[in-house]
Amino acid sequence: MNFTIPRHVETIAHHVRQFVDDVVMPVETELLHSGRDLNEDILQDLRTKAKAAKLWAPTMPKEWGGMGLNIQEIVPVFEVAGRSMLGPLSIHCAAPDEGNMHLLGNWANEEQVERYLVPLAKGETFSAFSMTEPPPGAGSDPRMIQTRAVRDGGDWVINGHKWLTTNGEIADFFIIMAVTDPAAHPYQGCTQFLAPRDSPGINILRDVPVMGTKDFGGHVEILYEDLRLPDSAILGEAGQGFMLAQSRLGPARLTHCMRWTGIAQRALEIATDYAAGREAFGSALTGHQSIQWMLADSEMELKMGRLLIQEAAWLLAQGEQARVETSIAKVQVSEIVNRVLDRCVQICGGSGISRDLPLSSWYEKARSFRIYDGASEVHRMVVARDVIKRYAAGSQS
Predict the structure, then answer these.
(1) Which of 33, 88, 257, 388 has the CA that lies 20 to 30 A from 379?
(2) How far apart are CA 387 and CA 381, in angstroms?
(3) Where are the beta strands (DSSP E) in 318-360?
(4) How far is the C-alpha of 179 from the C-alpha of 213, rounded, in Å?
(5) pLDDT tens-digit series, residues 91-129
(6) Peptide bond preceding 135: is omega within 30 degrees of 0, i.e. cis?
(7) Mean pLDDT of the residues in the chain
(8) In the 8-state DSSP scheme, what is residue 57?
């Protein structure tokens, strides 16, 4: 494995960091101190500036205004974009749009590309991936999906209950996971459908309140009631829903890791700067071993997390599925980020829990990272199965 960052990628990452530091962070600070939420006008202003700086859509083709980077090349770019929660949104590499663009890029037909992917890539629309359901529906086990799509003539009629559909408040279209063949194995019985927001039968019930400050686009609860869609709304083919979901969620887990590593790195910088300037018990906090160890542990863990991300990205770039490697990275990086942020809040004391610094808001938001895109326990199960399988194979040889 060669993890050397190509020179052109280093240059892009440098410019993205400058943009985030100089353009995005002042907006972040103003919103933090005023208590206001990000709105679409503010975001579109940031996006206009990003496009003018040619820092737009890292994973999209250059003919659509993107940077044309592959999964391995985006690692350092996504990390520096992630130094602010607004950074990925500003340069168009935030969830769920980034993952949905990846999914559509791989599986949409020519008509769907023009109707859905091109406007999304250009930042003209927003999207949502609607799979998670409230109990007793699908959460960590997507095989429990209750939403059904039933044939009616040449159409499909969808009924079901979804929630925590990110971007649901603003999405122009939804990618809906539904069971189309209840008699088939769950991995062959689901299908993904593309549905414009104004389709009759899409009923947004509410934005589900979550930990921390409100996220741009929300995480909505939806009731699909007799939503009628034609065959042309199917993404890929009928019965391929799980395969498509895996092709989306694997890289998406990794991009979450990249972005959150950027936040954790910036938190470490904030905590180190605070500790260097804060005196207590006769010296700067950086002179106390307890603080030094927290800084050292954070630095070491972030380095380990980056290596796990790079390994998984390298395997994906070689055409491998890298399911175990992305699971390992998701577990370790999500838990590393939480530990780093916890230490940084502790080092900064009262300032750490105040809104004068962004640490407390990041700390609240990071907790969900251990749950979405697969809870840590589920990914540990994936890794354990691989360990047991290899052990069984070895014991029989």
Answers:
(1) 88
(2) 10
(3) none
(4) 34
(5) 999 999 999 999 999 999 999 999 999 999 999 999 999
(6) no
(7) 96
(8) -
The owner of tokens 């500003």 is 90
Q: Are strands 219-230 and 155-166 parallel, antiparallel or unpaired?
A: antiparallel
Q: Quick one: pLDDT band at residue 307, thresholds 50, 70, 90?
A: very high
Three-point CA angle 213, 257, 117, nearest 5°: 85
Q: Which two tokens stand for residue 244?
A: 């498509």
Given the structure tokens 């890929």, which residue do they identify?
Answer: 236
Place of tokens 């069971």: 179
What's the confidence (pLDDT) of residue 183? Answer: 95
- Give the C-alpha separation, 153 to 34, whole Å: 54
- 284, β-bridge pairs: 279
**Quick one: tokens of 133?**
């359901």
The DSSP bridge partners found for residue 174 are: 128, 195
pLDDT on residue 20: 98
Residue type present at position 369: F
d(Cα 81, Cα 130) in Å, to the nearest integer? 26
Q: What are 139-192's pLDDT values in tens digits?
A: 888 889 999 999 999 899 999 999 999 999 999 999 999 999 999 988 999 999
- Which has the closest alpha carbon to 373: 229, 248, 286, 288? 248
Q: What percent of the chain has pLDDT over 70?
A: 100
One-letter amino acid for residue 340 of the chain: V
* CB of 54 closer than 8 Å to CB of 60: no
CB-based contact 31:38 (threshold 8 Å): yes
Q: Extract the tokens encoding 55.
A: 């820092």
Residue 152: how many other CB atoms lie within 10 Å: 10
**DSSP string of 130-154, one letter each residue:** E----TTS-SS-GGG---EEEEETT
CB-CB neighbours of 353 under 10 Å: 14
201 near 158, Cβ under 8 Å? yes
- Residues 346 and 321: beta-carbon distance below 8 Å: no
CA distance 397 to 395: 6
Q: In this model, does residue 389 exceed pLDDT 80?
A: yes
Between helix 359-366 and helix 323-353 the angle, nearest 10°, is 140
Give the distance from CA 39 to its chain's centroid: 20
Query: What gap in Å lies between CA 319 and CA 300, rounded to an integer?
Result: 30
